[in-house]
Amino acid sequence: MRIRIAGAALAAVALGATVAAGTASAYATPNSHGDRAGSYEIGLIGDMPYGDTGRAQFPNVIKEINNSDVAFTTFDGDLKNGSERCDQPLYDQALKDYNSFKKPLVYVPGDNEWTDCDRASAGSYNPSERLSLVRKMFASTPESLGQRKLKLTRQSAQFPENVRWQYGRVTYAGLNVTGSDNNAPQFDSAGKQIDGDQAEYTARNTANLDWLDKTFAQAKAAKSAAVMVVIQANMWATDDPTPHFADTKRKLAQLSIGFPGQVVLVNGDSHFLNIDKPLKDAKGATIENVTRVQTFGSDQNHWVSATVDPSSPEVFTYHQHIVKANVPHYVSP
To answer: Residue 192 gets which letter from DSSP?
Structure first.
């Protein structure tokens, strides 16, 4: 892995869905991107905009990405902060923002737009109802958001937010693995449940594990040089409960050990850029072909790109982009 710092109806959601005559150019492909050697650039963002400051700064992030040469961008969840109300206007604004990206934008849900909506400050919504809204607004077609589209495979009508796509020699997937301990039940000291939903968690967790299996099977069949998995949760957070990410980590470890190429896990949730190798095998040894990229967010409204070169053994080279318009100008005393 190299890290380079740079400047500042869902029945028809299969990958093979037919594109109407004359519209094929609306879809992003490695060839249509003008790539010659098999390499390309992608953008990685999430956890924005948070509050009024974030909403003032997020357009600058979008502008920079639109002025770049990325083939597509992934958004790893949290379209607002956790204390803001989960009212319709913020979802409407998010959809407008995502569709202002000139290139495809692939969205993966975060906890702030559904699991945490039961908080009083967020409007005391039913999380399952908010998840249904997220699925309807952001995951109801066999393609990405953005002005140009990527054709996506969605897992099912029940879990349409779980997606997969192939771009060149890399297999990509998005899964609904969220903070707040994956929406699993939480209990107070007296044993009373205070948060979470056992039935929802169990069904989605089962679907997520199956989607990981299918993603790596697809990658092997396609002879992909790498797999990138995008989720929202920081599964190694130290200030939140994390036991209900164990299945996901164990499955990802098992599949990565059996995969001959590179594996990248992209997550948000903790709001600062971090690139490391936290995934361990059953004996506690680092799994060397797995790299985790945690994206900017909250008051750090910047973005990360990755150069993807399947001919390189490392496949991915990462770059941070500090959006100058979003950095306060401090005057020395």
So the answer is: -
Closest CA to 97 of 147, 51, 33: 147
What's the token pair of residue 116?
A: 């945490």
| DSSP string over 95-127 | HHHHTT-SS-EEE---GGGTGGGGSGGGT---H
Is pLDDT at 17 greater than 80 in this prediction? no
Rounded Cα gap, residues 81 and 261, in angstroms: 36
Q: 146 and 131 in contact (C-beta within 8 Å)? A: no
Across the strands, what pairs with 169?
none
- With cut-offs at 50, 70 and 90, classify the pLDDT of residue 28: confident
Can you give the pTM of this predicted structure?
0.91
* Beta-bridge mates of residue 193: 187
Nearest of 304, 292, 157 to residue 237 by alpha carbon: 292
Name every residue whose Cβ is closer than 8 Å to that of residue 333 and which is 6 or more positions away in sequence.
Answer: none
- In whole angstroms, what is the distance from residue 102 CA to residue 63 CA? 9
> How far apart, in whole angstroms, are the C-alpha atoms of residue 30 and residue 227?
16
78 touches 45 (CB < 8 A): no
Q: Taking Cα atoms as reference points, which of 248, 242, 262 lies closest to residue 308?
A: 262
Strand partners, 2: 317
**Which residues share a beta bridge with 304?**
44, 320
Q: Which two tokens stand for residue 8?
A: 């500042």
